[in-house]
Amino acid sequence: MTQQKQHQQSLEKAILNSHHALNSSQDAEQAVEQAQISSDPQLLQQAQQIVGQANREVHEAEQRLTAEANESQEPQTVQVLEQLEQAKQDLAEAAERTEQPKQMR
After folding, report:
1. pTM check: above 0.85
2. Is the pLDDT of residue 100 over 60?
3. Which of 42, 29, 22 shows the shortest CA–CA distance to 97?
4. Torsion over CA: 8, 79, 56, 30 (sign)
5. 21-30, 38-47, 64-73, 77-86: which is most confident
6. Which of 40, 58, 60 is CA-nearest to residue 100?
């Protein structure tokens, strides 16, 4: 029973960590939107860094949750994994939007 309880606690921590990563992903997307609106190259560069950090957090959260959930595929776990996958796609799109066009010479 203790082992099951420890696993449940680890799973809950992984889910909590995943929610934090999802929030970071949303913050990164908002940073990109603000940078695009302002057309400030420095803000775009900062947004790129924020997107990169959020992307790392999402990947780490997904790996951790997958490792913890391989035995129990509870509906909540499956839903969070799907949200993390969607966040990865959204961050990839956000990263593309931060790329500055190359100037023609």
Report:
1. no
2. yes
3. 29
4. negative
5. 21-30
6. 40
